[in-house]
Design goal:
506 residues, alpha/beta, six-stranded parallel sheet, binds zinc ion
Length: 506
């Protein structure tokens, strides 16, 4: 015989069932409802048609939803709705407070930038974060703590040597402070000064500090050409020795004699993973890189022999574009071959002259050089543990600052078919979040932060080129950060909803 309690329970169950069967709640004032979208949720699973409701800064519900009178409807018919892209190797933080709308980033659907790359980070990070929290920008920002910045602050100008144990201890103390401020982990730029002079043991000691708090290690490796395989071995050694996740920054084979060996590299990475090393990588989709003129001299011996090798094997003069040159700004945009012709000398001589002239005034210099192949890029991109990055900046000379993500969608998805659209989006979102330890972003799921992009899969494309590096992409319909719209196909909106993302958070 059913007693009162049982009857009450039955009544409550019926009520709950009724609530569950009720058509989804109507929107509230301020809600945003995307209707009829082709939803690619970031997980890599096939797309599906769905409505997505955003309330405040979160994805509120997903399904077949009814438009409420009080909410704003965004008709997404024919468009892909995906999580905002996470750029795991970005230099878009430079000048960001001046260019807070971050047009270069948001116009290619990047909603989170990860700074502090190549061993360089703002010190102390806490001050950088405080300024950005006082005056927010359009995108979310996370950062690594940079080894070169720590090393400079401890060793100053006396950096052309290995650090003493006392100096390494000092760097560890500084790194701990940065990790406490929320740094994702340690980044190195071992091809650059002053990190190029560090011993592997120094990097291991610092990586241990990062590992102790659940941080990660990301590296512009000691070499991307001559000593690529040694550099990769060093990165894997750090992962094995310290037990820290390790990521290869902008993985590339930037030397003629290495071209075509991407599969060999990936076999090495796969066996490292099988051994238990959590190794991942990021890649940008261009055959040319941007760096300093001196980066091609690992021994810092600026002599004819090394310069000749660099121009023959690594970066031919016809493909080397001057991106910055403080002693003679009129060279910007010219190739090294053109500058050599103007000076009436051979390219090797002129290359060494330019390096000496920049060094003499401690002037800024930078080059864009063509030294990768699309086939290798496609192989690296297709590796299941590679996410997409830009390595770009807000107003740089390299088109990746404006076009890296949309270029993957156009070239590697639509034109070449290297990746399905779902896989490409995963590599720009949830995998990027996993590879950097960010949570709560990178997927369209109920409760996730509402970083959202809407694009036309048939037309989305980069337009930026080395000649016109600051052209926004096409096919991006809208971009939302924490539920607020920052970009429409007419441009930026002026909203600045970006947040600081600290390690372990979202
Ligand atoms: Zn780099």
């Amino acid at each position: 015989m059913p007693d009162a309690v049982t009857r009450l329970n039955a009544a409550l169950a019926a009520l709950a069932l009724l609530a569950a069967c009720e058509p989804a709640s109507n929107g509230q004032p301020g809600d945003l409802l995307f209707t009829n979208a082709r939803l690619i949720d970031g997980s890599g699973t096939p797309s599906r048609v769905a409505d997505v409701r955003v309330r405040g800064d979160r994805i509120w519900e997903i399904g077949n939803l009814t438009v409420g009178e009080a909410e704003t409807e965004v008709d997404a018919t024919g468009f892909v709705l995906a999580p905002g892209f996470i750029d795991t190797h970005s230099h878009h933080d430079r000048g960001l407070r001046r260019m807070g709308d971050a047009l270069a980033a948001v116009s290619q659907s990047i909603t989170t930038i990860i700074a502090g790359q190549d061993g360089g980070s703002p010190l102390p990070l806490a001050d950088f974060y405080a300024e950005l929290e006082a005056t927010p920008v359009a995108v979310n920002i996370a950062a690594y703590a940079g080894h070169n910045s720590l090393r400079s602050s401890v060793m100053g100008e006396d950096f052309r040597r290995e650090a003493t144990p006392a100096e390494v201890d000092e760097m560890r103390t500084l790194l701990r402070r940065e990790l406490d401020a929320g740094a994702l982990g340690l980044s190195t730029g071992l091809e650059y000064d002053p990190g190029i002079y560090s011993a592997t043991t120094e990097v291991v000691a610092l990586a241990r500090e990062a590992a102790a708090v659940g941080g990660r290690y990301i590296s512009h490796m000691r070499s991307e050409d001559r000593a690529f395989f040694d550099a990769l071995a060093e990165l894997l050694h750090i992962g094995r020795e310290v037990g820290i996740p390790v990521q290869v920054s902008h993985m590339k084979l930037a030397m003629k004699s290495l071209w075509g060996r991407a599969d060999e590299v990936l076999a090495l990475l796969d066996s490292a993973r099988a051994e238990g090393i959590d190794v991942t990588a990021d890649v940008y989709p261009y055959e040319f890189w941007q760096s300093t003129m001196t980066v091609l001299f690992p021994d810092r011996d600026f002599r004819r022999e090394a310069a000749t090798f660099a121009l023959e094997e690594l970066a031919p003069p016809e493909g080397m574009i001057i991106a910055a040159f403080e002693p003679e700004p009129s060279y910007v945009g010219m190739t090294l071959a053109e500058v050599a012709e103007r000076r009436g000398k051979d390219a090797v001589t002129v290359y060494l002259e330019l390096i000496a002239e920049a060094d003499a005034i401690d002037g800024r210099e930078s080059i864009i050089a063509r030294s990768m192949t699309t086939a290798d890029i496609a192989s690296f991109l297709s590796w299941p543990f590679t996410n997409v990055s830009s390595d770009g900046s807000l107003a740089g000379r390299h088109p990746r600052g404006y076009g890296a993500f949309t270029r993957v969608l156009a070239q590697h998805v639509r034109v070449r078919g290297d990746l399905s659209l779902e896989t490409a989006v995963r590599k720009m979102t949830s995998l990027a979040a996993e590879n950097t330890g960010l949570t709560g972003r990178g997927t369209i799921t109920e409760g996730a932060f509402a970083d959202i992009v809407l694009f036309d899969p048939a037309t989305v494309s980069d337009r930026a080129t080395p000649e016109e590096p600051n052209l926004p992409s096409v096919g991006i319909v809208g971009v939302w950060v924490n539920g607020e719209r920052v970009y429409t196909d007419a441009g930026t909106t002026g909203n600045r909803p970006g947040r600081i993302l600290r390690r372990g958070g979202g």
